[in-house]
Design goal:
four-stranded antiparallel beta sheet; Dipeptide-binding Protein, domain 1; 2 domains; alpha+beta; D-Maltodextrin-Binding Protein, domain 2; 6 helices
Length: 256
Amino acid sequence: MLATPSEPSTFNYPLNQSPYGVFSFLYEGLVSVNGVTGALEPALAESWEISPDLQRIVFTLREGLKWSDGQPLTADDVIFTYRDIYLNPKIPTVYRDFLRIGNTNTFPSLQKLDKQRVEFTLPEPFTPFLRYTNRLVILPAHALRSSVESTDANGNPQFLATWGTDTEPNQIVGNGPYQMVSYSPSERVIFQRNPYYWRSDAQGNPQPYIDRLVLQVIESTDNQLIRFRSGDLDSIQVTSEAFGLLKRDSKRGKYT
């Protein structure tokens, strides 16, 4: 069991503005960042090539990627995610700022080369771009395209009202290690392992190893600490105030 100080504000990643949410369990981008070393590592993209002028990057997706509903994940999803969502001026998302390049804030262009390869062309060399693709998670075109292309009575994309927290959790389609199975507002979110997740260990065993996670909403960090020390929680984010106490108790508490 894990803890979060706040319940999700939305299940729609591009519209999220909260530092807390469910998205790290549900989605990945083209690359990932190693939490220990900070190095960039392959995620949905198994590799990438950068042109000598540093303005073109070709990402190659892993073979056989699937969404949590079993549908194939291809270059079409990458094109849809960037072109139709992140770069869509009708969709107010903070993630568009990650794609503003140079003093002119010019956006990159992208094109599909084949079902596994996408080429991004930058207006000028921009070193942070590759790292930013970690934050720009890929979204399912087959599940969301109609909501982007249709509009409400005010002319706004239906996407803006899609995948709120009133959506049945099992309707949310992701590509990450887990999928949602239930949500109890102000209480908890329950996840189960995504059977179509791409990652496996060196022996071929599917990851993640843990089949089920519970994310408990506990607003007070003091209460989180109490429940962690009593064994009710398996993990918490450690505050500077609690570090000394937990360090002293680490052997007795059998945690690190």
